[in-house]
Design brief:
The protein is an alpha/beta fold and 471 residues long. Among the domains are: 2-90; 97-325, TIM Barrel. It has helices spanning 35-42, 57-68, 127-139, 158-167, 184-192, 209-213, 218-231, 250-259, 286-302, 344-348, 381-384, 389-394, 398-404, 406-409, 414-417, 422-426, 438-445, 448-459; strands at 2-6, 11-15, 18-23, 30-32, 45-50, 72-75, 88-89, 97-101, 144-148, 171-177, 198-201, 236-242, 264-269, 308-311, 315-318, 323-325, 349-352, 358-359. It has an eleven-stranded mixed beta sheet with strand order 16-15-14-13-12-11-10-9-8-17-18. It has a four-stranded mixed beta sheet with strand order 4-3-2-7, covered by helices on one side. Strands 5-1-6 form a three-stranded antiparallel beta sheet, with helices on one face. The N and C termini lie far apart (54 Å).
Length: 471
């Protein structure tokens, strides 16, 4: 017999279809259990006298595991859980995090902006609307949010929004910014609220950042912001859109980013959406980008891999994990893959547009398919997550996408690529969410997959063991 209680920061919770959850202090992570073992977890309330002799072997093993990890602590039978730690059942499907465009406005004039933010004519959400959306997230058990735009820092109530987030015990995971407004005050305001989000700032190549951002001095501002954030201990990452002019700056750009503390770079070919559709003379093909990437990689490895880089969909060098992967290779190639979700990110994540629409991801915003989705300002989020077109898309299986496309059904790569990215499959029309991602199809059918596998084999031993010191 004995009393036990959950340690500080842990929370009992459940959702539709996943009723037995334990959320960790890091809000990104929730552990799920079956009914039998969850009885033990529910008993960690400080007032239940647990008779270990009556526990099954699985229950005993779990209790020992939770005690060893200090998730559960011995108690005197008097201490109680905080009200927010007690079990709550949320009336919706499970969502781990949300990416939220709190404004569609921007202080830059990016040539490749998919949502045409420089030309955005909509109004910012009011603070009453902001509070309403945050309350809807809490009602559905969503405790992690990333803020984006437009440029989120141009919202006139940005710091008030941070206060409302903190008041609801929502974790601010990431801020996506162009860096222009990141200064000492920004740092102070975050620290004052005890917030430590990762900061993601796009950087589009040494010597070309100003050109694509449409603002003189943008490159200097971005580098200054990265240095300031690194100095204050914030984790930073970046994305780089490739085009005809910056493709030759890979080494110079990666070396610079590594030297100023950036930990991850994600590269993509700038796609013909939004304003970029009118910049055809600057386009680069996926083949041209892949050729330049494969030519650069030996030098990247020789330079000691200054920063983790996802080179478009062809190769991903992850220094933290010590591994190389092929991003376009989404599945393992066995028949059971057809039963997996068409997009794992959509299954557990969610995007809120500048006008409050609930969308599968940011890239869908502004396409024709956008009109098919509901606004959280007009309909409760719990209803959207329980019965809507959005919910149907979240539950879409990979096999359904393959069956939908005649071109996929007999393809030898169908159980590896899974018909590609759903947002990319919409294409310029934005109408067929279940269509083919032609870029991924081209990758597999034109020899790039085989070349990528050769590079994985060649360079997979290039990482130092975790914790090893470089000599």
């Amino acid at each position: 017999m004995g009393y036990y209680i959950l340690n500080e920061g842990f929370e009992l919770c459940g959702w539709k279809g996943l009723p037995f959850g334990l959320r960790y202090p890091n809000p990104h992570y929730t552990d799920f259990f079956d009914k039998e073992t969850y009885k033990v977890v529910l008993s960690l309330d400080g007032r239940t006298d647990i008779d270990e002799d009556k526990l099954s072997e699985r229950q005993k093993s779990l209790l020992k595991h939770l005690l060893d990890l200090k998730i559960a602590l011995p108690s005197d039978g008097k201490k109680r859980l905080e009200p927010w730690q007690e079990y709550k059942s949320f009336p919706a499907m499970y969502k781990k995090h949300v990416q939220w465009s709190i404004t569609g406005r921007c202080n830059y004039k990016c040539r490749h902006c998919f949502m045409s933010a420089p030309d955005y004519c909509g109004e910012d959400l009011t603070m009453d609307q902001i509070r309403h959306i945050l309350d809807e997230l809490v009602k559905c058990g969503i405790r992690t949010v990333a803020l984006t735009g437009g440029e989120p820092l141009v919202h006139p109530c940005f710091y008030e929004i941070l206060d409302e987030i903190k008041k609801r015990r929502i974790h601010l995971d990431t801020i996506y910014s162009n860096g222009e407004l990141i200064d000492e005050r920004f740092i102070e305001e975050l620290k004052k609220r005890e917030m430590d989000p990762a900061i993601h700032i796009s950087f589009d190549g040494v010597g070309w950042h100003d050109w694509i951002r449409g603002v003189d001095g943008a490159e200097e501002s971005t580098i200054r912001a990265f240095k300031l954030l690194h100095e204050h201990g914030f984790q930073t990452s970046t994305s780089m859109c490739l085009h005809k002019h910056n493709i030759g700056t890979l080494k110079e750009s990666i070396d610079l980013l590594g030297s100023i503390g950036v930990i991850h770079v994600k590269m993509n070919v700038a796609t013909p959406t939004g304003r970029w559709k009118n910049e055809t003379e600057h386009f680069i093909s996926q083949d041209e980008a892949n050729e330049a990437i494969l030519e650069y990689i030996p030098q990247y490895v020789a330079d000691g891999m200054p920063v983790s880089v996802q080179f478009c969909g062809i190769l991903d060098f992850n220094i933290v994990k010590g591994k190389i992967d092929i991003p376009y290779r989404k599945y393992s190639g066995v028949d059971s893959c057809e039963k997996t979700y068409a997009c794992g990110a959509v299954k557990t994540g969610m995007y809120i547009s500048p006008v409050g629409k609930i969308l599968p991801c940011m890239t869908i915003g502004g396409t024709a398919i956008d009109a098919e989705f509901d606004s959280v300002l007009e309909k409760p989020l719990s209803e959207i997550l329980s019965d809507s077109h959005y919910r149907d898309i979240c539950l879409l299986k990979m096999g359904e996408c393959i069956e939908h496309n005649e071109k996929c059904r007999g393809c030898q790569y169908r159980l590896v690529c899974g018909a590609g990215c759903r947002a990319a499959a919409c294409g310029e029309t934005g109408l067929d969410y279940m269509g083919i991602d032609e870029e991924v199809c081209h990758f597999f059918k034109n020899g790039w997959y085989e070349k990528a596998k050769e590079y994985v084999e060649k360079y997979k031993g290039s990482f130092l063991p975790v914790g090893a010191d470089e000599k």
